[in-house]
C-alpha cells in the first residue's frame, strides 16, 4: 500500500530489502483497529514482542526509554 501518510523506509529505499521495522506502522494501525491477524501478517516480531515490553515496564516502572548514562 503506497500512501503519502506513511514515510518511506530509508533502508528499503536504498537496498530494496525489508528491514525488521518494515510493516510496523501498518501493524500498529491494524492493532488499533483490532485486526490482530492483519498485524501479525505485517510484522509478527513486533506483535509478539509487545506483551514482553509491556510486562517489563509494569514490573520495573523506573525503566525509561531514554535513560541517561
Give an overview in words:
The protein starts with 9 loop residues before the first helix and ends in a 10-residue tail after the last helix. The model has no long low-confidence stretch (mean pLDDT about 80). About 55% of the residues lie in helices and about 0% in strands. It has about 70 residues and is mainly α. It has helices at about 10-15, 25-30, 35-40, 45-60.
Summarize the structure.
The chain is mainly alpha-helical and 69 residues long. The protein has four helices and no strands. Helix 2 (24-32) runs antiparallel to helix 3 (36-42).
Which key phrases capture this entry?
mainly alpha, globular, 69 residues
Q: Helix/strand/pairing class, anyone?
A: mainly alpha
* Succession of helices and strands: HHHH
Oligomer: single chain
Stretches with pLDDT under 50, minimum 5 residues: none
Mean pLDDT, to the nearest integer, reads 81
Give the overall shape: globular
Determine the N-to-C terminus distance. Answer: 40 Å
Tally of extended strands? 0
CA gyration radius, whole angstroms: 15 Å
**Relative strand content:** under 5%
The largest pleated sheet is described as: none
Helical fraction: 55-70%
- Put simply, the count of helices is 4
Write the topology of this structure.
Elements (H helix, E strand, L loop, with lengths): L9 H6 L8 H9 L3 H7 L1 H16 L10
Helix pairs in contact: 2-3, 3-4
